[in-house]
Amino acid sequence: MKKAFKRKVFLALGFLMAPFLLLLTLFVLLFHASISGSCSTSSSYSTTSDTVSAGASDTDPFTKGTKANQNAEKLVQSWINVGLSGASATGLAGWINSEGGFAMFGRAEGHSGNDLESNSIAYGNRPKGLSYYTTEGGGGTYQITPFTKYAPLGDAKWEDIDSMNHYVMTAIKNGDWNASMDMTGGNHSFEQFAKMTDVKQAALVWQAYERGNPAYINKDQKQADAQKFYDLFDGGKYSFDAAKFKANFGTSSDKASTGDDSSNSSSSKSKCKHSSSGGSWGDDGTGLVNYKNLNAWKAEDLPDDLKKYAIDPKSVGLAFRSREGWKVLASSGGQCTDLSASLMYALWEKDGQHPSQSSGNGNAVVSNWVAAFGGSQSDKPSAGAVFSSAAGTGGSGGYGHTGVVSHVFENGDYLVVEQNFDTYSGENKGFGQFTWNYRYVTADAAGYTFYSPAQKGYSIVKEAKTVD
């Protein structure tokens, strides 16, 4: 009787518990499905994370499979496809890795983030140039400066590497290559660069296209990056392809790559026909060369194609690294004002008298010449004119800068001689007193004013000669 009763109770409890057991089973199944779904999503993400930008790790161009790595490989291959050797293609990639980099193609200068929307010019991000820039900042993998030379703000071309490569290749074909800026000192033509087998040398030769300020170029980094790309992309298996090179660059690249302004075209030859006179100086509005704003050289490193335009202070009595001939000093002998005051004194004369003006910081020199001798300042350069540049322009500091115009080219660009510019001369960065350097300034550079004593009857002394 007790057993029958217990059986009935057990069956009753079983019927009562059944719905709860069913619900518990369904819950377990749903929970398991949820876990399986999460794992599936994670697995799906992991298989595609090597091609989708997912953070800082994806910006490393030397890690296979990252977005930056794929971008770098695409750029390298595009140069190999037009005939360059593997060493040349990876050499230039090593150079530009520390310029615009490969996390994206359209990076705006001054933007260091990793997302396209906040850093690419294609998304309307305006480049932020350095304080001394006189034009818009640069942009893109090649850091094209000003960025407006390539495409406007917000243009999709900024993330189109094929279009960007075509722009650079066309520029080089049309003459945008200056062999004298080659940082190996070898003055390699573009075709010689294309044939190179030494990737570290090739990296430095690319400066013939970039033509950046050497004072800010980390050669070791560029060479190290070039070697990494060469090893990563097996650069040694790609040799120079003469047929492809000729098909893409023809013979015009040979002419453009010499760095000789007389070889660019028949019209440029006529523009420079005065150069055969040797040593004649002050013939403004003549000649064309291929340099960028703020390209500068120590006196002993002046490229050959600029020597016929460069006034030699020694020709009018100024000694180099000696006080001899520096007859009008504004400061210690190692400042920009010292060179402009002494050279202007030696360079000009009227009735046997030389003009002396040593007052003011660099940005006030021109206005002080006007006050001392009369006439007016100008916004147009001329050979022998003293210049002032405003604070923060032309590489100057808070006191501005000054020097003397050496030559004005046909396109309005000009060459100046100066002291105390960066590490090229002067005492501020330890080069030394009573020295000078030369610098190229483009016509669109802002913040410059000029004064020529010619407007008050002064003439250039007959002893004035060029370096060449």
The number of distinct helices, counting runs of at least 4 residues, comes to 15
CATH class of the domain at 277-460: Alpha Beta
User: What is the annotated CATH architecture of the domain at 277-460?
Assistant: Alpha-Beta Complex
Q: Biggest β-sheet, characterized?
A: 6 strands, antiparallel
Q: What's the CATH H-level homologous superfamily of the domain at 277-460?
A: endopeptidase domain like (from Nostoc punctiforme)
Radius of gyration: 32 Å
Query: Could you give the order of the helices and strands?
Result: HHHHHHHHHHHHEHHEHEEEEEE
Helix content: 25-40%
Low-confidence stretches: 1-13, 27-56, 252-278
Integer average pLDDT: 83
Distance between the termini: 130 Å
Strand % is 5-15%
Number of strands: 8
